[in-house]
Every structure is written in structure tokens, then in C-alpha cells.
Amino acid sequence: MQIEEKAKLFKALSDPNRLRILKMLQVRKLCVCEITEVLSLATSTVSEHLSILKRAGFIIEEKDGKWVNYMINSNCCDTTVASIISMLPFWISNDNTVSCDIDKINSVDRNKLCCR
Amino acid sequence: MQIEEKAKLFKALSDPNRLRILKMLQVRKLCVCEITEVLSLATSTVSEHLSILKRAGFIIEEKDGKWVNYMINSNCCDTTVASIISMLPFWISNDNTVSCDIDKINSVDRNKLCCR
DNA sequence: ATTAGATTTCGGTGTAAAACGAAATGAGAA
DNA sequence: TTCTCATTTCGTTTTACACCGAAATCTAAT
């Protein structure tokens, strides 16, 4: 992998909202509307963030009926990406923002959330 | 450290020229004009890159007569920054670009380089 | 098939960042 | 002090990106 691509890996991690998404996904898989609810962003914005993280290799997606679940790419074959994923819990501690995010994803119900 | 500041750490690493600077500094300390010669950028541009890396904590500076030497912040007290620095050799291999950069810094003479 | 709802893609806007040259700063040499 | 030269700061331009709402897509249920 060339150095430009390595820079892109770090660029994917350079946005606070994307880091919050990764921290949430380390708790459990989530659909777009659940992440949207927690971050208070437009759905389209969250979708863009997810596609950036997916393109970099940090997350993968899984179709689940009308929903799309996103999850951490735990079995990533790229050693750099894999090692960064394994370091994230150590690097990014649960500050106020992250703690609140995790509280929220433990209390949302995607069926109540999205159907309105 | 809040999650916004963690994002800024990764933003500092999200530019290929800054990654090249870090890889060069892992060989030896360098002044601005040496880095400028290798990267083929304007001196002011290199100076800005260095100040971004310095603000993030990855490098430190040392006055040396009319020169300013920049070097890796090897004794960084921040555990996240320290761990990232220690991982850099593993993450960023010596691709063509990096190998050429290192060849160049081993052959430049700052006295011949700057005085013109 | 048609509808409803979750997600993605598509323009558009405002802000951040990378690049440059020129001017300002700072430190040694004359 | 005055000059030289390495570096930083400033003003500007161009490019990239985060964000939004609207339109398009895709899936499941009616």
C-alpha cells in the first residue's frame, strides 16, 4: 500500500463523528437510522460517513431486510487496518460524548425509531 | 483528552507529505530546508506542515544556530501519541516514495543546500 | 403492482485546509 | 549595528470536505 493510501486511512479517522461511529459499533452492529438518532445529523450525512469508513476498510455492511447493519471489520486482512482497529479502545477512551452515545444506543429501538 | 482532540491527532497524519516527513525524521533530525528539498514544496508550506505535526505532539524542535532542527518526539508523555509514534514503522512501510526520500536525506548537505 | 420506509446518491452551500509568494521575524556573521 | 539567510507568518487562491434537503434506489409488506 502506497503512502497516499495510508494517509487516507488516517483521514477516515480524522473526523470526530466518524470516531464516535466506530466507538458505537464496537458495542454492537447498528443501522443508519440508529446512528443518525445518536449523532443528530441528517441521514444522508451519516450515510456518507459510513461509506468513508467502509471504503477505508474499518467497517463492513450486512443487509437485514429493509435495514443495513454496519459493523466493525473484525477480520480485516489488511494488517494496518486490523492493528488500528485493535488499538482504538486504548486510544479513544469513553469521554462524556462517547459514554452518552453508548447509553443512547442501548436504549433505542430501531422499530420505534425509524417508523415515523 | 476529548474525542475532538483525538480526531485532530489523526488529521495531522492524514496528509501524505506529513507522513513522509515523519518517516524521514525517524532516520535523523532535519532542518526545514532539507525537508523542503526532498518534498519539492515551498518553504512556507513545509513550515506549516511541521507546525501541524508539532502542535499534535508528534515532533519537537531544537534551535541550532540559524537552523531549526525538527525531530520525532520520542519521549512524548501522551500515551496515545507515544503509541502511534511507535506503530508508524510498522504501519508505513518503505514504499518507493519513502525509499527515495531517505536516499535523498542521506546525500544532502544543509550547508550547500541552503546557502544560495 | 403499488405503497411505505430505510438508505444512498445528487446538487448546492459554507467552511477548512493545502499550496504559493511576499513580507516579517530571528539569529549568527561581518 | 548592519547584513545575510533560515524560518515563520500573512494574504490569497484553489481544492477538499462536512453538511443539508431533495430526488433516486432498494426492499418488504400490502
Would you give an account of this structure?
- Two copies of one chain form a homodimer.
- With 116 residues, chain A is α+β, with helices and mostly antiparallel strands.
- The first copy, chain A, has a single domain (3-114), classed as Winged helix-like DNA-binding domain superfamily/Winged helix DNA-binding domain (Arc Repressor Mutant, subunit A).
- The first copy, chain A, is 60% helix and 12% strand.
- In chain A, strands 1-3-2 form a three-stranded antiparallel beta sheet.
- In chain A, 28% of the residues are buried.
- The mean pLDDT of chain A is 95.
- The A-B interface holds A 1-4, 6-8, 10-11, 13-16, 18-20, 23, 80, 83-84, 87, 90-93, 95-98 and B 1-4, 6-8, 10-11, 13-16, 18-20, 23, 80, 83-84, 87, 90-93, 95-98.
- Chain A binds a DNA duplex (30 and 30 nucleotides) through residues 15, 17, 31-33, 41-49, 51, 63, 65-68, 114-116.
